[in-house]
Amino acid sequence: MGEKEVMNCNLFRKRQYSSLEKCCYIGEMQVHHCSKYEREFPFFREPQVVGCFSLDSNRGYCDDNHQLKYLHVPPDESKVNFDLNAGYEKVIKKSFELNEKLDNLLQWIIRNKKKIQVTRTTDKDVGLNTDFICYRGLLTTILVTVYEQQEDWQICATRFQNTIYLCAFNTEKNKKRQMDLTEKDKLMTSWGYKFEQYMTSEKEGQPPDLMVSVNEKEEYCSVLRSRLNRHSLVYGAEVDCLDPVSQKSDKSDKCSSLQHFVELKTSRKISHPKQERNFCRYKLLKWWAQSFLAGIPRVICGFRNDNGIVEKLQIFSVKEIPQEARGFWSPATCMNFCDEFLSFVQKNVTIDDPHVVYQLKWEPHQDIKLYFLDKCEEFQILPEWYIKEMTT
User: Fold this and answer.
1) Contact 352, 160 (CB under 8 A)
2) What is the predicted pLDDT for the residue at 367?
3) How far apart (Å, rounded) are the C-alpha atoms in residues 124 and 161?
4) Among 62, 63, 97, 200, which is disulfide-ready with 69 (CB 3.0 to 4.6 Å)?
5) Of 222, 255, 242, residue with least CA distance to 108
């Protein structure tokens, strides 16, 4: 089905969607070979921090920055000995079965509407002056799609007061992967959180407190505003830590830009060429996409052995990552594909109704399929409390 046909199909559904089936196929977006998107890098405005929030030890929303952590780098970066297994039996796990959707970001919006330029569109409706609202993780997923070989994805979209809300949902394949995790797999999923504990502290200038249990539920999230070509974006981004050495100012000033933040990652130490190729092709791609979207300039990686012992640290400049991975992927390809995806969504998610959901599904080596979901509670993105607040 061509683009014009999809548009016509949408116009029909706009008139009669209330009588449609629960799930109705609309059309698809072609996903071409990566070379199709290799052209001039599109305009991307440097992300601007417009706010932040924290999630406490029980995933409760807090309209503050109390979960912000400070970077603490050991004296000798080339020789460390971090045991990522330490204290695992006391780790407070985050549930991956519960989909919080956009709820925490929506709570921030309600409390901080003026920060994203609220304008009154009618006597009843209050609109947000942005085309899209989502999380950075969803945008990262889109950026790497043309290079992804294994993981599928599922995204839902709702247009409300002329802003499109995008939300990622677990696919059936991903749910099965989660259910099939071995005990060793579960241990390894906690290694990244433990590494963060080794590398961060609650207070500037103090060493990490390694005696407390790792709580995977806690989170600090920045809210960013940016633009990709003609698409304006507001998105939340969980960020790891602030580097207190990068700027001598108070905490609130440093939080105004993610140029002073650092991403923390772990990876298996590289011992032969195949591992080097895979590292450049897959890990550096995702690290670059994630950090670039937030405007974070550095990634610190803890290289570990198979037993979960970090033996050395290495700093990666986000600007230089594409050069290190040259020949495996292209930043321009990623951003151009994302731009086309957002254009496709904007053209086809046409019904302005907070209860109407469009579903986009993709599997590697396939095209993106678009569906219309009629009153499907499982995939409804916007909760009633948010709809009420935004229409009163």
Assistant:
1) yes
2) 98
3) 11
4) 200
5) 222
Strand, coil or helix: what is 212?
coil
Compute how many other C-beta atoms are within 10 angstroms of the C-beta atom of residue 150.
Answer: 8
d(CA 357, CA 124): 22
Give the type of residue at 22.
K
Burial code of 195-208, b = ≥16 C-beta within 10 A, e = fewer? bbbbbbbeeeeeeb
Q: What is the mean pLDDT of residues 36-45?
A: 98
- 139 neighbors 235 (Cβ within 8 angstroms): yes
Q: What angle do CA 307, 311, 317 make, to 5 degrees?
A: 120
Q: Torsion over CA of 103, 107, 108 and 113, rounded to 10 degrees?
A: 120
- Is the pLDDT at 17 greater than 70? The verdict is no
User: At 187, which amino acid appears?
Assistant: L
**Helix 331-348, helix 284-294: angle, nearest 10:** 60
HEC states along 89-157? Answer: HHCECCCCCCCCCCHHHHHHHHHCHHHHCEEECCCCCEEECCCEEEEHHHHHHHHCHHHCCCCCEEEEE
What is the distance, to the nearest Å, from the Cα of residue 386 to the centroid of all Cα atoms in its chain? 21
Q: How far is CA 267 from the centre of its chain?
A: 20
Rounded to the nearest integer, the mean pLDDT of the chain is 91
By the 8 A CB rule, do 74 and 139 touch? no
Alpha-carbon distance 303 to 279, whole Å? 12
**Bridge partner residues of 118 (DSSP):** 128
Segment (H or E) for 313: strand 309-317
Q: What is the DSSP letter of 182?
A: -
What is the pLDDT, as a whole number, of residue 119? 55
246 — pLDDT class (breaks 50, 70, 90): confident
